[in-house]
Amino acid sequence: MDHAADAHRTDLMTITRFVLNEQSKYPESRGDFTILLNHIVLGCKFVCSSVNKAGLAKLIGLAGEINIQASTCSNECFGEEQKKLDVLSNEVFIKALVSSGRTCILVSEEDEDAIIVEPSKRGRYCVVFDPLDGSSNIDCGVSIGTIFGIYMVKDDHEPTLADVLQPGKQMVAAGYCMYGSSCTLVLSTGKGVNGFTLDPSLGEFILTHPDIRIPKKGKIYSVNEGNAKNWDGPTAKYVENCKFPKDGSPSKSLRYIGRKRKQLPFLQKVPPRVAAMGP
């Protein structure tokens, strides 16, 4: 028996432990934010399980609906027909967020209107989210994921869409969960970015990538060159220099898969790999 390995596994930093440690730094905290994050984590676990068995459970395919992204955009926008997994994931996160008792308004990429939480279950947080970004790619085995952001409503009033229309700098937390060969949740509460990987044997997200950073200079750029005709001069010049550096340095490698969330792991500094963000 490898006692060293067993000892190591008894001191794992789970996401629950991590969030509670952060909460302890604020004696005045009532734990509302911690409860909300725990419900988001639960939603991620549920969706991860559904994604893993999507083919067997017949969750791959169209649901026969158009999401808000398509219904409000011109024909040139990247509108999407809803997949069965889109609908399921949306329901999962709405129920998880409402049942937390800590949200007052929800905005989903799948719904045309904001969801106002009933008074008896209402809290002081607003959550904006895309329950399943990239579901159109699941048939070909490409990773998909959930994106979310959290705002806080400071005043006690009837929630409206205006409560969500706050500057990004006022977010109290943001993150994404990627479902692929492993399930990875990346979270920031304003003081650094940390990555957690779901351990299937424990059913817990474990801290595996602490203090993620993007380097000042890297080796990868990500851009849809199909839109090159619409670029402004500086953007076109930058991409050209990535491919043909004038200083004689090695060309950067291109990584592009059509989903912002999927590209992030390539662009973040996740040791020992190094990457850099392009336009």
From TrEMBL:
Enzyme class of the recorded protein, top EC level: hydrolase
SUPFAM superfamilies listed in its UniProt record: Carbohydrate phosphatase
Catalytic activity: beta-D-fructose 1,6-bisphosphate + H2O = beta-D-fructose 6-phosphate + phosphate
Fructose-1-6-bisphosphatase class I N-terminal domain sequence ranges: 13-210
Domain of life where this protein originates: Eukaryota
GO biological process annotation, one example: sucrose biosynthetic process
GO CC annotations, alphabetized: cytosol
Keyword terms: Carbohydrate metabolism, Cytoplasm, Hydrolase
Cited InterPro entries: FBPase_class-1, FBPase_N, FBPtase
EC numbers for this chain: 3.1.3.11
GO molecular function list: fructose 1,6-bisphosphate 1-phosphatase activity
PANTHER family: FRUCTOSE-1,6-BISPHOSPHATASE, CYTOSOLIC, FRUCTOSE-1,6-BISPHOSPHATASE-RELATED
Family the UniProt entry places it in: Belongs to the FBPase class 1 family.
Stated name of the protein: fructose-bisphosphatase
Organism, as annotated: Gossypium armourianum
